[in-house]
């Protein structure tokens, strides 16, 4: 018995694994072997490759393709039209499926609308990739990245608020500290 919702226009290939409470909307396609966790939302026209892994509570907005070798950990947000790639030097006439590079988006990270992630990068926990940014290298946890190529502009909290010099979340009061150029939550 299916414990997820799929709009009548969705194509789900036999052998795809979809978790309880997940909702998949218009004109999406989930390939055989794809793994999608619980309580996810896949917007209109989302493609999920057969070797893609999507964690729990992930939200993927309209017009996103999650190709093979892309891993989205729990609580990741993918804005509309964001782009994942899986080959560094694609050619239509050269098959490079054995050369796919893993792209990993770690827990709680956000990818802004129309941002592009070049394959092989890791986006750290709770990082924020600004709309339209092009990520060409790994991103630190909690980093705020903008531009082409993406550069770090600051830090964000777990709730996504931009942190000031005091490194205190203006929304939650959660406190952070910098240790060796890495942001950490102060246990309290």
TrEMBL record:
A Pfam cross-reference name: Hexapep
Keyword DNA repair: no
InterPro entries, per the entry: Hexapep, Hexapep_transf_CS, Trans_hexapeptide_repeat, Trimer_LpxA-like_sf
Domain of life: Bacteria
Assigned protein family: Belongs to the transferase hexapeptide repeat family.
The protein, known as: N-acetyltransferase
Record GO terms (molecular function): acyltransferase activity
UniProt KW keywords: Acyltransferase, Repeat, Transferase
């Amino acid at each position: 018995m299916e414990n997820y919702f799929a709009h009548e226009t969705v194509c789900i290939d036999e052998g795809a694994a979809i978790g309880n409470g997940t909702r998949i909307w218009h004109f999406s396609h989930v390939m055989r072997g794809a793994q999608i966790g619980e309580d996810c939302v896949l917007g209109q026209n989302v493609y999920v490759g057969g070797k893609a892994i999507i964690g729990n509570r992930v939200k993927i907005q309209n017009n996103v393709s999650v190709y093979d070798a892309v891993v989205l950990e729990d609580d990741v947000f993918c804005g509309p039209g964001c782009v994942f790639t899986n080959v560094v030097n694609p050619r239509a006439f050269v098959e490079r499926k054995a050369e796919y590079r893993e792209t990993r988006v770690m827990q709680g990270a956000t990818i802004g609308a129309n941002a592009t992630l070049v394959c092989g990068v890791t986006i750290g926990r709770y990082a924020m990739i600004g709309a339209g940014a092009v990520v060409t290298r790994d991103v630190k946890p909690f980093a705020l990245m903008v531009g082409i190529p993406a550069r770090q502009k600051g830090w964000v909290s777990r709730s996504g608020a931009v942190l000031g010099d005091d490194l205190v979340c203006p929304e939650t009061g959660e406190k952070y500290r910098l240790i060796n150029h890495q942001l950490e939550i102060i246990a309290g």
